[in-house]
Design a protein that fits this description.
- The complex is a heterodimer of chains A (249) and B (503).
- In chain A, a hairpin with a 2-residue loop joins strand 1 (41-42) and strand 2.
- Chain A has helices at 4-32, 56-78, 88-91, 95-118, 121-136, 141-161, 173-191, 196-219, 232-248; strands at residues 41-42, 45-46.
- Chain A has 249 residues and is mainly α.
- With 503 residues, chain B is mostly helical.
- Chain B has 22 helices and two strands.
- Chain B has a two-stranded antiparallel sheet.
- Classes of the chains: A mainly alpha (249), B mainly alpha (503).
- At the A-B interface, helix 1, helix 2, helix 4, helix 5 and helix 8 of A face helix 8, helix 9, helix 17, helix 18 and helix 19 of B.
Chain lengths: 249, 503
């Protein structure tokens, strides 16, 4: 069960959470006022009565959230959450955890926003797997930062150079950069202590996305991210031109 | 009696159809195996197993096979959680948390093999009890549910969200309710179901169709797990497994009343909307401790304690499917993921569901439990080896799995942004001890609540008495009010004082 310190930290966080919830529910209550409540008129057509309005349920939901957030705030303040709200102890600040969370956030965020839409899925996922295992297996902050930078560089390049959707499939300069960063990171990982995990990383990083993307594209015949990517476009070409005809004929 | 035989005959037909199809076994064996692996790896959960497989199999293969894959993984994962619980004292899933109380002490006494054998048998019997209850009660409830209309549906959806928020909260109950309201709020995004009025779309056409269930599920369950799990963790010192993993039939026969009681408790808890296998395990363990003559040995390596939790958490699966199939209200978080699979296959669980689907679900459950039993006895050593894989190795693969699964379900890149956004919100909610299950139940039931609540008022011309004039609605409204009032400090104080006086 929680000890007294844990509860104190939790109530401090509750204090901040309650404030955020009050602001968010207040904002959405204001946005709900854009939806006609009392028989609005749209394009000459009279809207519905209050009880049939599209605003009635959201009003109730955000109204209830607003009230509960105030109750949570009162509970947090009574438990001393407001007094310790601005202290690092009260928030439960931990430098190591902050680095860990920030680097994971950067790695995953830039992978989804920058790499997946623009870079070959096998390359981007291989880089992600290598970065996450290298960065977080040993729990060293230096490794975490290197891993985050390794994903950040090609993702930022892809975002800046190929922002519009028309450029997501081609050209392949971002694919090449990702491949280069992946190789460099793999070499860095290889130079460290070569335990069982370190030896397995390159195999996992290549095999897992390759098998997944091929199963999805050719097994389930589903859409996969960035079909025109550097490696997948070649696999797709070879599959339809050379491999599939073997059993089709 | 005729009704009972008719059910058995329908079930027999569905079972024969599935059993005579060789492809069934491919999906069954692979999904149960995957499920046990997901359950056995601490950091991966049953909900995550069903969610990820929904992304892969949900709408890409015929519904029968999709259901085999998802239910097989569900049954396997709930059982698989017992491996690390018994051998490492780390619950593989929340559902096996109560198992640790007696499983690990038993393993330390050199009875790990016996404990795993009993767990396998108890999980098998528990799943069958839950499935039997599903077969019988789902039809009785379906008959009743034909009479429920919009007011009852709206109040039932609200009750599901409130109950899930109340029972799943680790800290303050209002946190569970806030989580449910966040889910409801997310369900409000997009065109409203009656007037097609756009709500909170901020001019982004993707949001017109609302939040898709699968990316929300992936974000809510996978991303926080990945963020939380990516840390150096000592895999732990595994207790040396002694003895063969075999079902001890003599012990099982001796403890049959305990198994039966736990099965009934598990099924009952599972049938409560939004309450998962972990609650079932703990409730059954608590009841066992207070009624069993061996109660004083619970927590010290009691066989009965082990059977209580393991039977109940697997029986909960069948129970959780009852409200899902009858009312369209998921009975547990993995059932919420199953609901997502039904939704993307354009099947609306509830009173209008095709009876054939229910019979198929029952037949799949029986087949999955047999597969789990056989795998548990003969391939346990493989799963024990899997326990040695560190989280930091398999979680990056889970990230890639969720990405491609979420992408392929529908909306492409936008679904990935949604998954990521929901994931970070869910991580912070986890950190602040907000339960995630009510959020997901809120997202899933939000649309139903919105539509049925407004339709009730529309039919009654705005007269709020529609929620008390029908007997079913009046009962549900009373339950909702009682549930809220039971959490008010004043009421709790009065109630506690009354109890003290009576005592």
């Amino acid at each position: 069960m929680d000890n007294f310190d844990d509860i104190a930290v939790l109530r401090t966080r509750d204090f901040w959470a309650a404030l955020v919830l009050i602001i968010v529910s207040g904002f959405f209550l204001w946005r709900t006022s854009y939806i006609p409540l009392f028989g609005g008129n749209r394009a000459g057509v009279s809207g519905a009565s209050w009880y049939n309005s599209a605003a009635i349920v959201p009003l109730g939901v955000f109204g209830a959230m607003f009230v509960l957030a105030i109750i949570l705030l009162v509970i947090a303040v009574r438990a001393g959450g407001a007094k310790t709200a601005l202290t690092s102890v009260g928030i439960g600040w931990n430098k190591f955890e902050a680095i860990r969370f920030t680097t994971i956030g950067i790695t995953i965020g830039f992978y989804i926003a920058g790499l997946v839409p623009r870079v070959d899925f096998i390359l981007s996922s291989g880089l992600l797997i290598t970065a996450l295992i290298y960065g977080f297996h040993k729990g060293e902050p230096r490794r975490m930062i290197i891993a985050a930078i390794a994903v950040f560089i090609p993702a930022t390049y892809a975002l800046i150079m190929h922002l519009p959707q028309s450029q997501w499939s081609k050209p392949h300069d971002d694919d090449w950069l990702t491949l280069a960063v992946w190789i460099v990171l793999s070499v860095i990982a290889w130079r460290g202590p070569r335990d069982r995990v370190a030896r397995a990383v390159p195999v996992i990083a290549i095999t897992a996305p390759l098998v997944l993307v091929c199963a999805m594209a050719f097994g389930f015949r589903q859409n996969v991210p960035n079909r025109g990517g550097l490696i997948f476009s070649q696999i797709e070409y070879q599959y339809y031109v050379n491999i599939r005809p073997i059993w089709r004929n | 009696m005729d009704f009972f035989f008719a059910q058995l005959s329908g079930f027999g037909g569905a079972f024969y159809d599935l059993a005579s199809d060789p492809v069934t076994y491919i999906y069954l064996i692979s999904s149960v195996f995957l499920g046990i692996v997901f359950g056995a790896l601490p950091g991966l959960t049953a909900t995550l197993a069903v969610t990820i497989l929904t992304g892969f199999f949900g709408n890409k293969i015929p519904l029968d096979y999709a259901l085999i894959a998802l239910l097989g993984a569900y049954v396997g994962a709930i059982y698989g959680g017992s491996y690390p619980t018994i051998l490492l004292n780390i619950p593989g899933t929340a559902a096996s948390a109560a198992t640790a109380m007696d499983g690990y002490p038993l393993a330390k006494q050199g009875r790990g093999g016996e404990a795993l054998g009993l767990t396998t048998t108890a999980s098998f019997i528990g799943t069958l009890i839950g499935t039997f209850a599903l077969l019988v009660f789902v039809w009785l409830l379906l008959m009743v549910s034909k009479n429920i209309a919009s007011p009852e549906k709206a109040l039932l959806a609200l009750f599901g969200i409130l109950l899930s928020g109340t029972l799943m909260s680790e800290d303050l109950v209002i946190k569970g309710w806030i989580a449910g309201l966040i889910g409801l709020a997310m369900a409000m995004v997009g065109l409203d179901p009656l007037l097609s009025e756009p709500r909170y779309t901020f001019g982004w056409s993707y949001l017109l169709s609302g939040f898709q269930v699968v990316p929300v599920l992936m974000g809510a369950f996978a991303i926080p797990q990945i963020i939380e799990g990516l840390r150096t963790m000592d895999v732990g010192k595994m207790v040396q497994l002694e003895g063969r993993i075999l079902p001890n039939l003599k012990t099982i026969r001796k403890h049959m009343p305990t198994i039966a009681r736990s099965g009934v408790i598990g099924t009952g808890v599972g049938a409560l909307p939004g309450v998962g296998e972990d609650v079932a395990g703990w409730v059954s363990y608590g009841v066992g401790k207070s009624v069993s003559p061996d109660g004083k040995n619970f927590g010290k390596g009691s066989i009965e304690g082990l059977l209580c939790s393991e039977t109940a958490n697997n029986a909960c699966i069948g129970g959780a499917l009852i409200p899902l199939l009858v009312l369209g209200i998921p009975g547990s978080p993995p059932a919420a993921a199953l609901m997502g699979a039904f939704t993307i296959n354009n099947i609306i669980p509830g009173p209008t569901i095709h009876p054939e689907i229910i019979l198929r679900v029952v037949a799949i459950m029986v087949m999955a439990s047999f597969t789990m039993f056989i795998m548990g006895l003969f391939t346990a050593r493989i799963f024990i080896k899997i326990l040695r894989i560190p989280q930091t190795v398999f979680l990056p693969i889970v990230m890639v799995l969720t990405t491609i699964g979420s992408f392929s379900v529908g909306g492409g890149i936008n679904d990935l942004y949604l998954m990521l956004g929901v994931g970070f919100v869910a991580f912070f909610m986890n950190m602040l001890r907000y339960p995630i299950a009510p959020l997901v139940i809120g997202v899933i039931l939000g649309g139903l609540f919105d539509e049925t609540f407004r339709r009730s008022l529309l039919i009654a011309d705005g007269d709020l008495s529609v929620f008390i004039s029908r007997p079913g609605a009046a009962i549900l409204l009373t339950l909702n009010i009682l549930l809220i009032m039971s959490q008010l400090p004043v009421i709790r104080c009065v109630f506690a004082r009354l109890l003290r006086k009576v005592a």
